[in-house]
Design a protein that fits this description.
Layout (H helix, E strand, L loop, with lengths): L1 H26 L5 H23 L1 E6 L10 E4 L5 H9 L4 E6 L8 H6 L4 E3 L5 H16 L3 E4 L17 H9 L3 E6 L15 E7 L10 H17 L9
Parallel strand pairs: 1-7, 2-5, 2-6, 3-4, 3-5
Antiparallel strand pairs: 6-7
C-alpha cells in the first residue's frame, strides 16, 4: 500500500510540476518576480497537501518566529527531495536558491526555475562558483530575498555526515547578513534514493538567527554545522514502518 500511494503521489508531483511550471514558463516573462515566486510557493504547498492526503506524510515546523527579523542566508540540512519541495512552500516567497546549473536544462522545470531568480552554479568551477555565490548572493540579499543553500551539496542519508561546503559561510562573512539554520529528519520518511514515502510527521526546526558580522568564515561555518548536526541528532530517526 505504501508503494502504491507513493506511485500515485509521484504522478501528482509530475502533473503539478508540469502544470504550474509551464504556466510560470509561459507567463513569467510578463509578470513581476513576486508573482512568479508566489506561484512557485503554491506548487510547494500543493505538494505538501498531496503528501498528507496520499501518503499520510505530514510535517511540523518549529521556529517560524526566527524568520520575522527580515531576509537572511538560510542553510538547510539536505536528506531527501522533500525539502527541495517543502521549503519552497514553507518559507516566505522572496527566495533565491543556490543550485546546480544542470537543473536549468530540465524542460519546463528548468524554464520555471529561471523565472524565480536562482543562483545557478557550475559545481566543478571551484573558486569561480564561490565568487558567483558571493556576488550574486549579496545582490539577492540586498534586493530583500532569502538566499537558500544546502551546504552539504547533495542528499545525505540519516545517520551519515558529509563535509559542509563553505559557500554559505563565505557569503555571510562578505555580506554581513545573518544566517538562519534549518534542521529536519525528512530522510527518515522520504529516503534519498527511494520511491516510497513512509507515513509519519517530518520535524523541521528553524534555528535562531545567527549574526555573522565580526566573525570569520571558519567560525561561521563551524557554528552552523554544529547547530544543524546536533539538532538533527535530537530528532526521531525511525519511521516505525518496516
Amino acid at each position: 500500500m505504501i508503494l502504491l500511494r507513493s506511485i500515485v503521489y509521484f504522478i501528482t508531483l509530475v502533473v503539478s510540476t508540469a502544470t504550474i511550471g509551464l504556466a510560470i514558463s509561459i507567463f513569467g516573462w510578463l509578470l513581476p518576480f513576486s508573482v512568479n515566486s508566489k506561484a512557485a510557493n503554491l506548487w510547494g504547498r500543493i505538494n505538501l497537501v498531496l503528501l498528507d492526503w496520499l501518503c499520510n506524510l505530514k510535517y511540523n515546523v518549529t521556529g517560524m518566529e526566527h524568520l520575522e527579523g527580515g531576509n537572511a542566508i538560510i542553510l538547510s540540512k539536505h536528506q531527501s527531495a522533500w525539502e527541495t519541495i517543502a521549503l519552497r512552500g514553507i518559507l516566505p516567497f522572496n527566495q533565491a536558491w543556490v543550485l546546480k546549473r544542470e537543473l536549468m536544462w530540465v524542460p519546463i522545470f528548468g524554464w520555471a526555475l529561471a523565472m524565480v531568480n536562482p543562483i545557478a552554479i557550475n559545481r566543478k568551477a571551484g573558486r569561480e562558483a564561490a565568487r558567483q555565490v558571493i556576488t550574486q548572493g549579496t545582490q539577492r540579499l540586498e534586493q530583500g530575498l532569502y538566499v537558500i543553500i544546502f551546504p552539504e551539496g547533495t542528499r545525505v542519508a540519516p545517520g551519515e555526515r558529509k563535509k559542509y561546503g563553505i559557500g554559505g559561510a563565505m557569503l555571510a562573512e562578505k555580506s554581513g547578513y545573518p544566517i538562519i539554520p534549518i534542521a529536519h529528519n525528512a530522510g527518515v520518511f522520504w529516503r534519498r534514493r527511494g520511491l516510497k514515502k513512509y507515513p509519519g510527521t517530518i520535524q523541521v526546526v528553524i534555528g535562531p538567527r545567527m549574526e555573522t558580522q565580526g566573525l570569520s568564515m571558519k567560525e561561521i561555518h563551524q557554528r552552523v554545522e554544529d547547530w544543524i548536526e546536533s539538532t538533527v541528532e535530537s530528532l526521531p530517526n525511525s519511521n516505525h514502518v518496516s
